[in-house]
Amino acid sequence: MATERQIGSALSRVLLGRRDPEDAKRCELNAYILSKLKRWNAPKSVRGWEAWAKDVRKRLLRDVYFKGLPLGMTRLKPRVVWGKVIETGRGYRIRKVRFEGYPGMWIPSLLYEPTNLRGKVPAVLNPNGHHIGGKAMDYKQARCINLAKRGMLALNTEFIGMGELSMNRDHYRIGHMDLCGVAGVSVFYLAMSRALDLLLSHGHCDPTRVAMTGLSGGGWQTAVLASTDERITTIVPVAGHSPAWQRVGCAEDIGDLEQAPVDLCTVADYDLMTALFAPRPTLLIYNLRDDCCFRSRRTRVSVYNPVRPVYERLGVGDRIAFHENTDPGTHNYEADNRRQLYRWLNTHFGMDTPDGDLPFEDELLSERDLNVGLPQNNASMLTLAQEQADKISHRAIRSKPTISKTRKKIAEIIVLRRNRIRAERLTRNNQAEHLRLHLGTDWTVPVTRFRGRGTPTVVIGDGGRKGAAQRVSQLGSSGRPVIAADIYGTGESAYPNGLHMSLSMTGERPLGVMVGQILDVSQWAGKRVDLHATGPVSSFAGLTAAALKPSCFSSLYVDGLVESLKRLIETPVSYLDAVPLFCFGLLKVTDVSQLIDLCEGLPIEWRNRGPVYSAARG
Fold first, then answer.
1. What architecture is domain 37-388?
2. Which of 277, 328, 428, 429 has the greatest number of CB atoms lying within 10 Å of its CB?
3. CA proximity to 63, closest of 166, 203, 221, 185
């Protein structure tokens, strides 16, 4: 057997065919994701448009935004607590208010209200984006002040993770709720939906003239709520969305986890969701030199161009427009973009107000001035996930029918994918050979095989082949063959986290791809193999593979395995550190102890732990 240094050198060799493997990785995963996505094209006839759109909205709510929610939760009316009123003496007042967006989570908000209200007046919902200052951002205050001075109600809502809700800064904790089988994005959706409930409940709100507008994450909220809730009659998202098929090749556009929810594209991508705005007046605003995301040159092609024909075929082509901001052209909702909003509202609300901003500069207030205040125990994304996890319990698996049924459920929940393998030998010497394993037409797994006799050992790890030199050296000293593989998500087959999210949008699951590759590589390596997995993700994936197909393995060694998926929430573990483990609904179906039971007596060594027995043996 070679020395550990020689082994390390062999395992460090790049096998994906390019000196910059990042390009190869991106191309392969991009191609796989794009094969699952479809660009939406406007129908040649819009006959039955309303019925078709209604059905898509229903499926978006049922299968994406409300997935896993208890029945009846979506019908609850928000609890509302009104607070202090700030009398500005400038023709409007600011009323502090908080409402319960999701049970236990209160959302602080500000209602900008004209002083002398008579009859019904237009109303505008103003969600925030990804700015730490939240509802106190100067551009947001400027807009709401101007709307109130023009005689409109303007509700300024805090975005989860910003301002007074900064304890939720990590939006990736959506994944912790997803793990429990409840869509984490539902917390975001219900917060904006109930803000709209609050606005519409105002005695002076004209329900026929209700607009929604926001920048960045506020633009995303505008797009999502407007696509599914027809109570919004006029729509002005600013630099907030584009379809997934455009984003996979443009990492800066992928966004946070709420913008890439699990299974979204199995129902509708953002181009189709934008089409659901029709026939309501829609002004799409994007920025020429946006220094965050969604530049106008990309979104004109991916958002506006596909949707405009729908408006034209409905006979309302004048109700959709695209504005490209050039001053300043960066990620903004400054004077020019606000001017476009005022003009659009004048046109479609039948108003006659000034073209640009009314004076506001000396009326801006500090975050402290605008703080609404929240209950001491206000829920966070993490506490909501903990509540869901606490409700889940599992029993030991003892009967064969239950074992078979549980395996089927696990395979379904992780969306297990299996492939035929074609091996391509690259180089070979007396001690080792390098190969590319082509799994179907989609994936390439780099493999280094060290010679020996007897039962093969397959080695996988979160650090990939390069990080396995010591382990391979130890195993090789026995004289048996050792195969080190960079399965999906590891080593040369690691991918940017944003692409994992895009994969989940298509209905696939990173864990399912990973487990499928472990099984594929193991069956290629021999009829029965020893499997050695290192790291939290690879260890869990390896255990899952052994639980689904124990006949493929002679033994299992795991190093770094979490003792329960609940630890991901209790610790908590960052979503970005273990993306495949945050598989939607996995905790509802199984956990580590149940997976061990499914191994049916397979010898398992768990590093730094005592003997491991399944229910059948114990």
1. 3-Layer(aba) Sandwich (3.40)
2. 277
3. 185
